[in-house]
Amino acid sequence: MSMNGQGIRGLLGREVKVNRGPEAVQGKLIDVRGDYMAVSCKKGCVYVNGLNVKSITDTGRSSGSSTPMNNPIPSNSFLEVLQALRFRRVLINEGSRDEVEGILAEANQNQLIITTDRQEVVRIPTYHVKSICIVRGGNKSSGNKSCGKPSHPNKSTGHKCCEKHPHKSTGHKCCEKHPHKSTGQKCCEKHPHKSTGQKCCEKHPHKSTGQKCCEKHPHKSTGYISGRRK
Q1: What is the pTM of this model?
Q2: What is the pLDDT of residues 158-183, one digit of tens each?
Q3: Are strands 25-32 and 89-92 parallel, antiparallel or unpaired?
Q4: Would residue 227 be called left, alpha or beta, if left means φ above 0 and alpha means ψ between -120 and 50 degrees?
């Protein structure tokens, strides 16, 4: 599909879907050049090779605050975009069987050379590149191992996360009956809100006392018998 059509340029600033199926790119159309277009998506700016554009769908929505604005690379051709992305972590052909992520080591008229995290060197003919975008945060390295649970990506911890209670990272066992607690001592069996090293008063559970309560006056804990002197 030619990128020179006035109809396509008329879609600038609107929400579009480029192609269909798993390879579709949906977002705000922010640039149209001779042989490529740039679409601003939540993940960043995606550059689509015009030779591989089979359809463009106007979703019927104008640009809104929900769609981020990404500044495209100012290039005259798709090859110039590829060359400008050298030494960056990129994602090529997202959604297709030929999807590749890695560092773009070289880009020329004939091929792209990608080095992956597995130390593989992947060569892709330039005309087979359907789309490309920068992987955000791809150049970060961390000295700490992140939490092994994918549901807790905000944690980076040197010890194991609590399996049952993901919001906690603890070096000791959580209280089995009362998950909100992490305690080194046994909880009071009858009164779960307490964690105590001594027995609670049997008659008056709100108390934890080392001495017997006054039988007649339960609100008191006393060393003498009420009603008479020692």
Answers
A1: 0.58
A2: 444 445 554 444 444 555 665 555 55
A3: unpaired
A4: left
